[in-house]
Design goal:
By secondary structure, this protein is mainly α. 81% of the residues lie in helices and 0% in strands. The longest helix has 58 residues.
């Protein structure tokens, strides 16, 4: 496939080509390396004799591996662009998925997730956002929002696909097919992404656009970085932990199984709608204000469910508001650092931010399982609200820095 051309400001065909290509890679990437495990876990447990904790520890291994590699990868992205990294990632994901299909016990199973984690760090994680930032300039926020929509569709595509393939071919062949998708579909798309947006000499001769310039004063860059890390690590701790136990928490409030599942399914549409709204009209507002709205809405939704236990209306309100808040924050996780620190070292910055975020994401499922078991539903919700308020306070402090001359 030929490389995508440099994208002009109004080049709609080129924009559509790039967006569609990256959307496909994100659906396949996240669907095969993250969401498919939810469907295949039962068969893996049965055939390999693993407990549920070990099976889902694969995701933890993926995230921790990504955190270890992210800083070095981020620096490489700023120097060389993202094409080579993403191609390496596709090959590593394919190899890891194939090894997963060959796993015979806990050691080989978890080792497969190390390889997948390397591929994830090279091609998924924040690399797609860095690619868009390198190529799209001022349109970055809108395009990243659309890409996040694609990530939200990954589960809707790969949950039924994994179920059909597993029933027809078995879970091992399913992993092999997902690995083949990385080589046959994903790798050619990554290979078509230009190495750099423009040559360094040309870049030096052109005026520096606003997206290249840090909005924070130089004296506040370090503090700003740690505030951003705190905001998204704390909010991510809740968004990666609480939803895994959502149906059980609704059942614990007295709802029937079917009612709890039906209400929980509203999470996906609410997240997608929030991301769509942010992608279409978010350019009219500073990204820190939309992130602030999500950080306010998240803890309020948790309190709502505590105040009205067993109420279907309160449960619906909680699921919709919480999911919408997390949808907005997930977009801001990629776009706020760009708005604050510019594109000059965006890859390295995102690599550094990945470390605390991935560690929080990895700890979240186990932490919330322990909280629910030890403290119960209501105290877990109150704790979730408190964690999000902590992130909210950090955002308010960041906005104070932004307001200073």
């Amino acid at each position: 496939m030929p490389a995508f051309p440099r994208l002009p400001d109004h080049g709609l065909p080129e924009h559509a080509l790039l967006i569609c290509g990256l959307v496909v890679t994100r659906i396949i990437g996240w669907g095969s390396t993250f969401y498919a495990l939810s469907v295949l876990a039962r068969d893996i447990r049965r055939d390999l004799g693993l407990d549920v904790t070990t099976v889902f520890a694969g995701i933890t291994v993926l995230l921790v591996t990504g955190a270890a590699f992210a800083p070095a990868i981020g620096r490489h992205l700023d120097r060389e662009g993202t094409r080579a990294s993403m191609c390496i990632g596709a090959v590593a994901c394919a190899l890891g998925l194939a090894l997963l299909g060959c796993a015979q016990g806990p050691v080989s199973y978890l080792a497969s997730w190390v390889v997948i984690g390397i591929g994830h760090a090279f091609s998924l994680a924040n690399v797609g956002s860095v690619t868009v930032a390198h190529l799209m300039g001022p349109r970055t926020r809108r395009v990243i929002g659309l890409m996040m929509l694609a990530t939200g569709l990954s589960s809707a595509v790969f949950w039924p696909l994994a179920a059909v393939l597993s029933d027809a071919l078995g879970w091992r062949a399913t992993w092999f097919l997902f690995g083949a998708m990385q080589i046959v579909i994903v790798l050619p798309i990554y290979a078509a992404i230009p190495r750099r947006r423009f040559p360094a000499a040309a870049a030096a001769a052109t005026p520096v656009p606003a997206t290249e310039v840090a909005r924070l004063p130089p004296a506040h860059l370090r503090v700003g970085f740690w505030l951003v890390a705190l905001i998204f690590s704390a909010s991510g701790l809740v968004s990666w932990g609480l939803p895994l136990h959502l149906i059980d928490m609704l059942r614990a409030s007295g709802m029937a199984e079917a009612e709890a599942v039906g209400i929980a399914t509203l999470s996906g549409p609410a997240t997608l709608l929030a991301r769509l709204v942010d992608a279409t009209i978010g350019d009219r507002l500073p990204v820190e204000r939309t992130a602030l709205a999500g950080l306010v809405l998240g803890p309020l939704s948790c309190v709502l469910l505590v105040m009205a236990p067993g109420s279907p209306i309160a449960a619906i309100g909680f699921v919709i508001c919480f999911s919408a808040a997390m949808g907005v924050i997930s977009v801001a996780r990629a776009t706020l650092p760009l708005a604050l620190f510019g594109r000059g070292s965006f890859g390295a910055l995102m690599g550094r931010l990945t470390v605390p975020q991935n560690l929080a994401f990895a700890a979240a499922p186990l932490l919330f399982a322990m909280m629910i078991e030890r403290f119960g539903r209501d105290l877990t919700l109150i704790g979730s609200a408190a964690i999000q308020v902590f992130a909210l306070l950090a955002m308010l402090a960041l906005m104070r820095f932004l307001a200073r001359p």
